[in-house]
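Table S2 (text version). Query chain:
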Amino acid sequence: MKWSRNASQISSTIEDICRRRGIDNYYGRFAYPRISINGQEIQLSVLDTPNPKGLILFLPGTNAYALLYGEYLLALASFGYKVVGCDPRCHGQSSGANGAYTIPELVEDVYALVHYFYRQEKLPLFLSGSSQGGIVSFYCAAKEEKVAREERRPSVIKGLVCHNIADLAAADAVELTRWPKFSTFIKKGVLALARWLPEFPVSMALYLNLKIEPVRHMGNAWSILQRDPLLVDMVRMKTLASLCNTPLALPVEALQTPLFLIQAERDTIFKVAYSKRLFDRLSCPKKMVVYAGLPHYMIVDEVPAFIGDVSAWLALQLNRP
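Corresponding structure-token output:
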């Protein structure tokens, strides 16, 4: 199916997803404002809650969009939070050419959104993200901490709920690719090509094996990419380059924003050993739970398995000074 930003087609797609999963169609439960950030029109999917105890800004995975995670977002709202799903630039219904983004651009956009909502809502603010969205959330918290220290003020991010994190500039980040044994050599070529051909399209199949990642009632991640009109199955050379070497604003060991790390035991992209090594480097208030038997897309497929842990952790952070 051809990629599209047509609202009626998106509504039909969500209806089909919900039918396949045997759940009520949630498309009509969200509001859909747009906001201009850093020269881009960013699409939001918003769940308002009476007298919210906090606000959770959610970021989806690579080339995905917020509504795909509707069951997770609805569960968060049911615990009394205002929830804002964000389609990053070049994702979903937001502006920007297909797959034509870099990690630093996404971090700058989310940083601007964080401060916009903090000023507007005056609520405790949490970031949550899945896969690439978890990485961007992690990176945004580092940037916010660095700026807050320079400006001698507290960070406005109360905590992070991340399904996957990474330190992209570290040597072991090659483990996140499809060909880890060869990625050290491939990385040099990608960085060189990105200088000359930054917009050159690259299929996601070249660096991620999505066919082995199951998605409940939907086949596998690759088949969904081919079927969903709002998903794109490629990025650009500049995107890959930024995934190879973007440093955090602060060292991992210096970060102090509280973090709850959600980890699927059967995740073939972010393997348990990689996540555990990175988690052990953190000195912030932290929690990591490995969910037995679950695959990478657990945050889409298995919300009841982990949402109680998320709710309890968020409540704990709200009571933190």
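Notes on Table S2: The domain at 7-170+248-318 is CATH 3.40.50.1820 (Rossmann fold). The mean pLDDT is 91.
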